[in-house]
């Protein structure tokens, strides 16, 4: 065998080894993905929020199952609403899905009310529909309270009480 042929053969051998190594690595990554829970399953389950970190009078937004969630710690100038408020200790919170019940736009929060610019719908700070086409207040997502933690996606007695009253 000539030296030129040996070099070519070595090169081809190394190339196969490199391709096999990359393939093996890709296989390991695929196996790891199979072992891990799917990211969408993790995200689709629950969203937890530490309510003690929510600033009074300021709208806090998060997501649960890809839906916007509004959390508002009510300030003293906001009317209490026993049919919708989530009460934790001395604090009252509005917890609702941030999608207008008319056609699903995301309202903004200004001057203690939720304003849906799409067709002029208004909701008060508790999420009750007060003006325009929205047929009902902002929907309350299923939740549970654990100490000062709000667990979105689990049904607790506080949620059942609100839904029963609503
Ligand atoms: S979508 Fe909000 S008022 Fe129409």
UniProtKB/TrEMBL annotation:
Annotated Rieske domain residues: 86-152
User: EC no.?
Assistant: 1.10.2.2
**Record-linked CDD domains:** Rieske_cytochrome_bc1 (cd03470)
Q: According to Swiss-Prot or TrEMBL, what is its membrane topology?
A: Single-pass membrane protein
What are its cofactors?
[2Fe-2S] cluster
Could you tell me where this protein is found in the cell?
A: Membrane
List the GO molecular function terms.
2 iron, 2 sulfur cluster binding; metal ion binding; oxidoreductase activity; quinol-cytochrome-c reductase activity
What do the Gene Ontology cellular component annotations say?
Answer: membrane
Q: What class of enzyme is it?
A: oxidoreductase
**Which InterPro entries does the record cross-reference, listed alphabetically?**
Rieske_2Fe-2S, Rieske_2Fe-2S_sf, Rieske_Fe-S_prot, Rieske_Fe-S_prot_C, Ubiquinol_cyt_c_Rdtase_Fe-S-su
User: Has keyword Oxidoreductase?
Assistant: yes
Listed A to Z, the keywords are: 2Fe-2S, Disulfide bond, Iron, Iron-sulfur, Membrane, Metal-binding, Oxidoreductase, Transmembrane, Transmembrane helix
Q: Which residues cross the membrane?
A: 12-31
Quaternary state and partners of this protein? The main subunits of complex b-c1 are: cytochrome b, cytochrome c1 and the Rieske protein.
Protein name (database record): Ubiquinol cytochrome c oxidoreductase PetABC, 2Fe-2S subunit
Give the species this sequence originates from: Campylobacter ureolyticus RIGS 9880
